[in-house]
Design brief:
This protein has 22 helices and no strands. It is mostly helical. It is found in: Cell membrane.
């Protein structure tokens, strides 16, 4: 008996080659044989685009590990300034001792000595750190144990890197090569092993892939797990609410929210009940911490000489974030064509980072996969990455200046310039994404005939709600009422 298979709007289009669409990608490809030719027959090699992206990402991760070699060999253990002058600082070896892992303490349950009292990380990240501690052999040579602990964590984070790269490459089925933006991002290689952010980034990338395949429950579960590792992934539910509202996809959105809440509760409730003081440390620490590195709040305090109390900074940051979210909501509901999910996801996460009390160098990892999906343009991506690399160097040179007795490094004015530079770099990408939303004909993804490749059930769906221009959209295939799509070529006996 024949069967009919539904297809997505993107299924029948050929794979997009960046070297045929992007001048920077075409110029860069000259190092590897030049752009794809008109007679090329992709697919004949075992090195598929997804495999190439994954291998390149792992290679860049390995280069980032090599960049940390001076610290691994000696600089982590011989005073603070050396690890800054070599720009190879990492939290991982220091917290192995500082958070009790070297002594066998159990996170959240065992009290630490000093002011910190308990581990200040979310539960899933704490479990990640603890597993790495289990895999680190004991002994009396603490320097060697710190090195092994960093290597074990690096190996686990390399797995996260592969997951992230594969998921980004597969999210847009006809644009797998956009994953190279993630794999070749300089800031990714430099910041991958500073902290444990790649765990949440990999889970978020996997969630985006699941949503693009129409698996709302799997998306929600992965977002819940990602939020149990880092707070920012829960923000993606906000843009998704707006898009599902505009498209009338309430059932899928409700499924995603329930999945996220359930997964987060499964991870957190046991620790919440058995070790409430340790569990809430992450949240109280986030509220109580002072204005810190990388934020415009720090520039204000340094320029004025007046400290900003944590409570005041929290209030202003929340107000600014709410205003930014209101602007994103207006954009989502009033744009003449419904924005793509990745576009709004980048904007909301960027707004959170830009208004936060701290903008650590590794936070760029949160944005890199979203940027590759939201605006896969090499020139603009590399401009932004250049700003982030300058900040990466700037913060370590500033810390070298403040910790070394001879005051060698970057003085305060220079560091403030580096902060402003990387804030402007992030705002630059935000502005380009907003422009693409308001003038969708500029959107490179949609120029290739797609609607929303990362949108899942939103891809090609008609609007049921809109404000302003969206209430009277132009006649376009993406705004047509969605009917059943049947791939008659797929009818088989």
């Amino acid at each position: 008996m024949p069967s009919l298979e539904k297809t997505s709007p993107q299924q029948d289009r050929p794979v997009v080659s960046p070297t045929q669409r992007d001048e920077v990608a075409a110029a860069g490809s000259e190092l590897f044989g030049g752009p794809l030719g008109r007679w090329a027959r992709p697919g004949g090699s075992p090195l598929t685009p997804v495999r190439v992206v994954a291998l390149v990402a792992i290679g860049m991760f390995a280069l980032g590990m090599v960049q940390k070699l001076p610290c691994y060999n000696w600089a982590w253990f011989r005073g603070a300034s050396s690890q800054y002058t070599h720009a190879c600082y990492s939290d991982i070896p220091h917290l192995f001792i500082g958070r009790g892992f070297a002594d066998g303490l159990i996170p959240y349950f065992d009290r630490l000595s000093g002011d910190m009292e308990y581990l200040e990380y979310p539960v899933l990240t704490g479990l990640f750190m603890e597993v790495a501690a289990w895999l680190t052999p004991g002994g009396t040579d603490m320097m060697h144990r710190e090195q092994i602990y960093w290597l074990v964590n690096a190996g686990m984070l390399m797995v996260c890197t592969a997951v992230m790269a594969v998921c980004v490459a597969r999210t847009h089925r006809d644009r797998p090569w956009d994953g190279l933006l993630v794999a070749l991002a300089p800031a990714f290689a430099l910041t991958a092993t500073i902290n444990w952010d790649l765990l949440a980034v990999a889970l978020t990338a996997a969630a985006m892939l699941m949503w693009s395949r129409g698996r709302a429950l799997a998306f929600g579960i992965l977002i819940g797990l990602a939020t149990a590792a880092k707070l920012y992934p829960v923000l993606l539910l906000g843009p998704l609410l707006l898009l599902c509202w505009r498209a009338g996809r309430w059932r899928e959105y409700g499924t995603a929210v329930l999945g996220a809440a359930g997964a987060w509760l499964v991870v957190n409730v046991p620790v919440m009940l058995l070790a409430p003081e340790g569990w809430k440390k992450f949240y109280t620490f986030s509220q109580e911490r002072n204005v810190d590195f990388g934020s415009f709040w720090l520039v204000i305090t340094q320029r004025t000489g007046e400290p900003i109390a944590p409570e005041t900074a929290n209030t202003y940051a929340i107000v600014l974030m709410l205003l930014a979210c209101a602007g994103i909501a207006a954009l989502a509901l009033m744009a003449p064509r419904r924005p793509r999910f990745a576009q709004l996801a980048f904007l909301v996460v960027a707004a959170f980072i830009l208004t936060n009390k701290v903008y650590s160098p590794q936070y760029v990892l949160w944005l890199i996969p979203l940027a590759a999906l939201a605006r896969p343009r090499w020139r603009d991506f590399l401009i932004w990455q250049a700003c982030e690399v300058m900040y990466f160097l700037g913060i370590w040179m500033y810390l070298a200046f403040t910790t070394s007795g001879n005051k060698q490094g970057l003085p305060t004015d220079g560091y403030q310039f580096a902060i402003v530079l990387h804030l402007l770099g992030t705002l630059y990408i935000c502005a380009l994404i907003v422009r693409d939303i308001l003038t969708p004909e500029r959107d490179k993804v949609r120029q290739d005939g797609a609607d929303d490749p990362s949108g899942g059930v939103l891809d090609g769906a008609g609007d049921v709600f809109g404000l302003g221009p969206a209430a009277h959209p132009p006649r376009h295939a993406a705004h047509a009422v969605e009917g059943p799509r049947v791939d008659w070529g797929a009818v088989r006996e």
